[in-house]
Write a sequence for this structure.
């Protein structure tokens, strides 16, 4: 009696065995990673807003999360985060599209200089490609230029030294310059700049374009870092809004995510050393009863992020136990210095008040 | 704990004078003396107080009363969102016509008087042409403003409560500019001796820029609260905007009685005859 191709497939190939009969928290759609991440491997993250969860996740499972632009210890964690330190591996802000990522690489190496490269208003300077990188923008043109130059330098160092690049694709809808095709993360006028239909146009990237941009980026990255590996993910976070007036935001979201998912699959299947990680599926799979989205049906809950983390740790590092609780941070030299200065300045001022002469 | 200190400048002299008297003599000639002045602040008020105390005998100077919040009796300075009963009592007792704030004034020094273990610099928004040490980390000015704002917030809360507690004119006096001389700071290190040995005095320009950021926060708060902001007397600043040598106190951060005398002169001039 002849069999059929499904007869000897593993459990993960069957919905009943891999989803329906598995506890929601144990669903693991990652199966087998094409490569592993060693404890010392430097992992760089970038991408859309869901990618903000990746860095903390990597830290929690004790991976080597590469941070190319670290917060100065003068700033509290909250203040530093408001300036987009420790959000991604560098102060890139959200990179929503593959084209934006590709252009960022070329800008960092001086191979692309967008014509529209700064927005000024009321003495503040906004980086069109990182419009929300710090509250209120840059306070002088010179500060903006110095910061951008150092940002690019930090990116070059990171690109050339990272071991694994994790990129989370977010959107296909974008706004770009008619002059040179520079893609903005946000539509001009939303968070700086002024929208001008003569200078700016909407573009919804196709599967072919996204896949081509991803390949272009990976080629460029491997031009400066031959052996690096790449993990692609798709953000499960729906669009805030669609620019397609004839399309419902839900339909636009599903279309956009579908394009990204297909493009990621094409690249992962076609380029060696590139993997697709199914965080999108974990969050949107509904096997959890919808608990992985918050009440706004858009934000991902901590439970969802924790599930992604478990699967990622198992898949890329064979970590199956819960990670040990993080040790309380030790006081750094900088913190000790500041505490000492605070104490001494208080006593210094008290002494002068007591005995001014 | 330091002993409590509340001084009525008319009856107590705290500082040995160097040469403040000549300034106040000039006020004698100017006429238009303001009414009784109440000064609430921290240690920078000492220079003003010392200048006042060392007036030339017989000179006509405003009657002043100083309350220093470094005094543990005034800790905490706030209660229930307003000034503490102890401070309100001082205000009532003083029955002043003009109120002055010299609250805070050294938070920029905590951040930048010495070389931070992770050395930094920044572009001063109001003077972006000033040199920047690109060998350091260059921090966003907004980040430093945010950190300074966190540090000065308790002082500004007291200023707001002070504003709410007193009618009429309230003047905040800008904290003194930094001493440009690292040598002076090393010579008079006070309690910072070991820290200076370990980290070194930071570049004067960095200290100056941080002071300007610090002053910008106070200036903005004053505008918001309806408090007059009195800047540093021009003659007390050198060409780079830092404190002239005549004003250096034998310590790393404060002005001396000469400096205080110039501030007092400017204060009196700014009040004109309106206070009386």
């Amino acid at each position: 009696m002849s069999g059929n191709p499904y007869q000897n497939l593993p459990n993960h190939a069957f919905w009943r065995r891999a989803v329906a009969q598995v506890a929601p928290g144990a669903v693991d759609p990652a199966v087998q990673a094409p490569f592993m991440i060693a404890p010392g491997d430097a992992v760089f993250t970038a991408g859309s807003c869901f990618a903000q969860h990746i860095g903390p996740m990597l830290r929690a499972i004790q991976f080597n999360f590469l941070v190319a632009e670290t917060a100065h210890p003068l700033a509290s964690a909250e203040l530093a985060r408001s300036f987009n330190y420790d959000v991604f591996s560098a102060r890139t802000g959200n990179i929503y599209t593959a084209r934006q990522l590709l252009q960022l690489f070329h800008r960092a190496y001086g191979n692309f200089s967008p014509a529209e490269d700064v927005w000024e208003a009321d003495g503040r300077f906004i980086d069109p490609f990182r419009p929300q990188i710090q509250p209120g923008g840059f306070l002088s043109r010179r500060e903006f230029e110095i910061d951008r130059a150092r940002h690019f330098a930090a990116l070059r160092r990171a690109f050339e030294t990272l071991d694994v690049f994790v990129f989370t694709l977010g959107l296909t809808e974008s706004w770009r310059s008619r002059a040179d095709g520079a893609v903005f993360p946000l539509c001009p006028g939303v968070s700086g700049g002024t929208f001008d239909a003569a200078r700016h146009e909407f573009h919804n990237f196709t599967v072919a374009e996204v896949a081509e941009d991803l390949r272009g980026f990976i080629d460029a990255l491997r031009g400066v870092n031959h052996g690096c590996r790449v993990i692609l993910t798709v953000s499960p976070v729906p669009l805030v809004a669609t620019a397609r007036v004839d399309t419902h935001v839900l339909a636009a979201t599903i279309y956009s995510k579908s394009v990204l998912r297909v493009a990621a699959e094409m690249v992962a299947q076609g380029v060696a050393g590139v993997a697709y990680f199914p965080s999108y599926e974990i969050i949107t799979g509904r096997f959890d009863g919808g608990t992985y989205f918050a009440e706004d049906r858009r934000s991902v809950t901590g439970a969802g992020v924790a599930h992604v983390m478990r699967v990622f740790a198992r898949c890329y590092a064979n970590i199956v136990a819960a990670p040990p609780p993080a040790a309380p941070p030790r006081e750094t030299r900088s913190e000790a210095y500041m505490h000492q200065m605070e104490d001494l300045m208080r006593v210094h001022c008290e002494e002068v008040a007591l005995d001014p002469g | 704990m330091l002993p409590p200190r509340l001084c009525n400048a008319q009856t107590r002299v705290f500082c040995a004078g160097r040469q403040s008297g000549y300034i106040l003599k000039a006020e004698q000639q100017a006429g238009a003396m303001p009414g009784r002045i109440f000064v609430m602040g921290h240690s920078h008020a000492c220079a003003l107080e010392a200048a006042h105390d060392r007036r030339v005998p017989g000179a006509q100077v405003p009657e002043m009363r100083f309350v220093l919040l470094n005094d543990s009796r005034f800790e905490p300075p706030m209660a229930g969102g307003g000034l503490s009963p102890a401070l309100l009592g001082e205000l009532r007792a003083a029955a002043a016509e003009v109120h002055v704030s010299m609250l805070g004034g050294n938070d920029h020094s905590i951040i930048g008087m010495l070389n931070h273990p992770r050395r930094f610099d920044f572009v001063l928004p109001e003077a972006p042409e000033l040199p920047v040490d690109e060998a350091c980390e260059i921090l966003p000015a907004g980040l430093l403003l945010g950190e300074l704002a966190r540090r000065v917030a308790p002082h500004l809360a007291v200023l707001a409560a002070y504003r709410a507690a007193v009618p009429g004119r309230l003047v905040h006096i800008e904290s003194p500019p930094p001493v440009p001389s690292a040598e002076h700071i090393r010579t008079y290190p006070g309690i910072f001796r070991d820290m200076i040995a370990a980290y070194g005095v930071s570049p004067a320009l960095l200290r100056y820029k941080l002071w300007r950021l610090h002053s910008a926060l106070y200036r903005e708060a004053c505008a918001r609260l309806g408090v007059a902001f009195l800047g540093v007397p021009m003659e007390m600043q050198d060409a780079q905007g830092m404190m002239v040598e005549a004003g250096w106190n034998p310590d790393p951060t404060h002005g001396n009685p000469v400096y205080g005398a110039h501030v007092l002169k400017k204060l009196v001039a700014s009040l004109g005859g309106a206070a009386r």
About this structure: Residues 247 and 259 of chain B are 4 Å apart (CA to CA). The longest strand of chain B covers residues 37-41. Strands of chain B lie at 6-8, 37-41, 64-68, 78-79, 82-83, 98-102, 120-121, 137-138, 170-173, 228-230.
